Structures are given as C-alpha cells and as structure tokens.
Amino acid sequence: MKKGFTLIETLVVVIIMGVVITTVVGVMLNSLKAKSRLSLANNLESNGANLTLALRRIILNSLSSKITCPQTGVGTSLVVINRSDGQSTNLACLEASGQVASNSSNLLASGVGVSGCSSFISCDTMPVTGEVKTINFNFSLVTSSGGTSPESYVKRSFVNKVVIRNY
Strands 105-106 and 112-115, how do they pair? Predict the structure, then answer.
C-alpha cells in the first residue's frame, strides 16, 4: 500500500481551506467598513458638538434685547448684536452650500455639510414683553468619505436650546 493522499482527500482539504479563507476575508472587510463608518460618525459628532458650542457662545455673548429672530418663528437665520463691540452677527444655515455661517465664515469643518435648514432656528419669546427667552437650534450634519456605498455616508441630527441671559 502506498502512502499519500488521494485526489478526493486533496480536493476536500482545498474546498475547506477556500471556505475558511472566504469567511476570514469577509469578516476582515466588514471590520474595515465598520471602522470607516465609526470614524465618520465620530468626526460628525465632534463637528456637531463644536458647532453647537460656537452657536451657544455667539448667542450668550450677544445683547438679549438685540436678537432678531425669524418673523415666522422658525427660519434659517438669526441676527444678534455682540455685547462687547456692538457689531451685528448673522447666523445662517445655507443648505445649498452645506454651511452654517457666521457672517462670512463657515462654522463647519471641510467634508461636513448641513441639511434640514428650514427649521434651523426657532425662538421662544416672553408673553408680555416679546423679548426672546430661548433660541432653539435644529439641524442635521452629513458627511461622506466620497464613496457611494451606505457605509460611506453618515447623518446625525442635533437639537440645542440656548436660554438667554438678561443683563
């Protein structure tokens, strides 16, 4: 009797190895896609937190009596007068260009865009005096790694309320 493997035994080993390699490669590719999506989501969350902080800082450094809210109660822009220098600042959500801008500067990092600008700003006012008591921001940020697959696109919604200080 000769020692060695038969053709059937060799084919079985090759098929089993093929299945194992295919499974390992699939798991590795899914892991890389998940890492990429998580990186995009973390970047978006960071940008959303920075934008929310910047909007809050601009509002809190303004004169409460000089805040001009949208006429309809909800809109895409807000005008405030800075407390220290008296200059006006226009905060606007520009969905066409994907920007949230303060006067002429974009408050978002490159690669991040904004959507849902129609309800970007809403104001709550005091019943008797009509003074603004809170400003609500509602927007969504989107980012993409440039691909067309669902793994390369992330969208997050942000809602924030700023209570106006009266000085």
Answer: unpaired
Q: How far, in Å, CA of 135 to CA of 56, rounded? A: 9
For residue 159, give the DSSP letter.
E
Q: How far apart are the first and last CA of the chain?
A: 101
Q: What is the model's pLDDT at position 161?
A: 92
**In this structure, are residues 74 and 93 in contact, taking their beta carbons and an 8 Å threshold?**
no
Residue 106: name the closest of 34, 45, 51, 29 by CA. Answer: 51
Question: Angle at Cα 32 formed by Cα 26 and Cα 34, nearest 5°?
Answer: 100
Mean per-residue pLDDT for 83-100?
Answer: 81
Distance of CA 128 to the CA centre of its chain: 37
What type of residue is 72?
A: T
The Cα–Cα gap between 59 and 66 comes to 11
What span, in angstroms and rounded, lies between the C-alpha atoms of 98 and 92?
11
Band (109; pLDDT cuts 50, 70, 90): confident
**pLDDT tens per residue across span 36-74:** 888 888 988 998 899 899 888 888 888 777 788 876 666
